[in-house]
Amino acid sequence: MVRKGYMLNKIFIVIISIFILSFVIIESLIIYNARKNDKNKKIDYILVLGARLYGSTPSPSLKERLDKVLEYEKLHEDIKVVVCGGQGEDEDITEAKAMKLYLVGNGIDEDRIILEEKSTTTYDNIKFAREIIQENDNRENINILLVTSNYHIFRSKFLAKRLGFIPFGLPAKTPKTVFIQSYIREYFAIIKSFFMDRN
Fold first, then answer.
1. pLDDT tens for residues 6-46?
2. Residues 6+ apart with CB under 8 A from 141
3. pLDDT digits (tens, 9 = 90+) for 45-54
4. Residue 134 half-sphere exposure, CB side, CA atoms within 13 Å?
5. Where is the chain membrane-spanning (predicted)?
6. Long-range contacts of 52-59 (CB under 8 A, 24+ apart)
7. Cα distance between residue 67 and residue 160, in whole Å
8. Is pTM, for the whole model, over 0.70?
C-alpha cells in the first residue's frame, strides 16, 4: 500500500513537472512572437483574424486589429486584405462584414477587401481564407501577414504554416481587461490546436 502511494506521488510529480515545463516553453514562444513584428516582409495577402462583435460593432480586441491594418495599409496600398469570421449567436452580422465596414469607413478601397464569412475558429479562419485565395491564385508559397492580437500570433502562424502558407505576423495590442486571461487561455488553445487542428 505504501509502495502504491509512493508510485502515485511520483507520477503526480512527473505530470506536474511536464505541465510546468510545457507551460513555460509555450508561453515563452507566445511572448516572443507577440513582440515580433514582420511588417517589413514581402507580403502577398493580409489576413485579419476575427474576434467578437457587440451587435455589429467591433470589440476592443477586433478594433485594435483593424487599426493595425489601417496603419499598415497606408504604406502598402496594393495588397489585398482578407477579413475572416462568421456570425456568432449574439452578433448582428458576420465579423468579416463588420471588419469590411470599418476598413471602408476609414478609407480602404472596398475592392481590395475579400470576405471570408463561414469560419468560427482560428483554424477555420485560415483554412477558408486559403480556399478563397486559391480560387484566383494558384501559386505555391504564398506569403501572408496575419493581423491578430499579440498573444494569438504564435498559434496563428503555426496553423497557417500547417495549411501551406508562409506566415508572418503583425501583432495588435490586447486590451488590459483581458490581457492575463488571454495569455493563459492561449496555452491550452495551442495544445488543442497541435493535436486537433489538421487537414
1. 788 889 899 999 999 999 999 999 999 999 888 888 999 99
2. 166
3. 999 999 999 9
4. 11
5. 12-32
6. 52/88, 52/91, 52/95, 53/88, 53/91, 53/92, 53/93, 53/95, 53/98, 55/91, 55/92, 56/91, 56/92, 56/93, 56/97, 56/98, 56/101, 57/98, 58/98, 58/99, 58/102
7. 22
8. yes
